[in-house]
Design a protein that fits this description.
The complex is a heterodimer.
Chain A: H1 4-23, H2 32-38, H3 41-55, E1 56-57, E2 60-61, H4 68-83, H5 86-103
Antiparallel strand pairs in A: 1-2
Chain B: H1 9-41, H2 46-55, H3 59-70, H4 75-86, H5 88-100, H6 105-113, H7 117-130, H8 140-166, H9 177-190, H10 194-209, H11 217-237
Classes of the chains: A mainly alpha, B mainly alpha.
């Protein structure tokens, strides 16, 4: 299946959101509850993606130290917390994963 | 809309916008390259991967869309997820709208297209610097255009670099893990207070519990519950 038409729709949706208030001339305001809720969109959506990536292996919860992605992810989270640097977080996280993969036999 | 010579006031505004966007590109360029790599890894053809960067033109939404495509999610889930992830841009739209009110439709369409997190950050801090001074430049939309186009060009170029390199990277390098790492790097600074942390933990734990739910609907459900938990925690503390 070609994803291109789907991406065009996703692009139009994105454009409509960005244009919304600019087109409405700033005369209409978002209800305060919506403005407030938007603040929680990034943390909620991003964690909903990250948690399963780190904690679930082959469809099951895996909290063992042999789950190398979990260990590398925790290391990366510490780097992100201390430095708030995206590039450094990715670099240290990948270095951690490669080191663990080299040390721990598959 | 021609680009005036730098000697004109419009040209100076445009170049100032380009210049102020440059430092942000340090963070954006690797991000664009990783997106290009991952999009190929998810099975998208090179042209479609490149097209997404100009058609959708939204970093985190593109990463999430790539993830959904890799997992074979249905089209509706992809569109709804992109909508939810990009809803924050409505806030930016509301914030810049009064500054763009005097412009023609063409300008409004172009600047809305360019209204990414990074262009907004630069344009909004310019508006904040200017404050309510009566003598502000009447050409500030050129500054916005300069910042937005600089980011656009960098995003297209870094995507192309990633797509180009993608074919040469073997799978045992586990480069797909950069996706999770990118999200970790983005989510940690968003945890500004207890309510945001509660939203993140609730959404994350629920997403793990509903991981077997088909069509990735668990992701949308977990995110919505997380947002609700954030609102509730905030209301209790207020």
């Amino acid at each position: 299946m070609s994803w291109f038409p789907v991406l065009v729709v996703a692009g139009l949706v994105t454009f409509a959101i960005r244009l919304s208030f600019i087109a409405l001339l700033g005369k209409v305001e978002l209800p305060p509850i919506v403005t407030h809720a938007l603040r929680f969109v990034p943390p909620a959506v991003l964690s909903a993606i990250v948690f399963p990536e780190l904690l679930v292996r082959e469809g099951a919860l895996d909290l063992r130290p042999g789950n190398l992605r979990l260990v590398a992810g925790v290391v990366a989270a510490l780097v992100a917390w201390r430095t708030r640097n995206v590039v450094l977080t990715i670099a240290v996280g990948m270095a951690a994963l490669w080191t663990l993969q080299a040390l721990v036999p598959a | 809309m021609s680009i005036a010579s730098p000697r004109s006031a419009q040209g100076r505004e445009f170049l100032a916008g380009c210049r102020d966007e440059l430092p942000i590109l340090l963070g954006v360029a690797p991000f664009g390259m990783i997106y290009g790599l991952l999009a190929l890894g998810a099975g998208l053809p090179a042209l479609t991967a490149q097209a997404m960067s100009s058609v959708v033109f939204a970093g985190s939404a593109q990463f999430i869309a790539t993830q959904l495509i890799r997992e074979g999610a249905p089209a509706v889930v992809l569109v709804v997820t992109v909508f939810v992830v990009n809803l924050r841009h409505a806030l930016y739209s509301a914030s810049v709208a009064p500054r763009l009110q005097h412009l023609g439709t063409g300008w409004k369409l172009v600047l809305a297209y360019l209204l990414t997190d990074e262009a907004y950050a630069v344009a909004a801090s310019r508006y904040a610097r200017d404050g309510d001074r009566p003598d502000v430049s009447p050409h500030r939309h050129w500054y916005f255009l300069g910042a937005g186009l600089t980011l656009w060009a960098a995003w297209q170029a870094s995507t192309a670099a990633g797509v180009f390199l993608g074919a040469a990277v073997p799978q045992r390098w586990s480069l797909d893990f950069t996706l999770a790492l990118t999200f970790i790097a983005l989510v940690i600074p968003a945890l500004k207070d207890v309510a945001a942390a509660a939203a993140a933990i609730a959404a994350g734990l629920l997403a793990v519990m509903v991981v077997g739910v088909p069509y990735k609907l668990g992701l949308v459900l977990a995110a919505l519950v997380g947002i609700l938990v954030g609102l509730l925690v905030d209301a209790r503390r207020a």
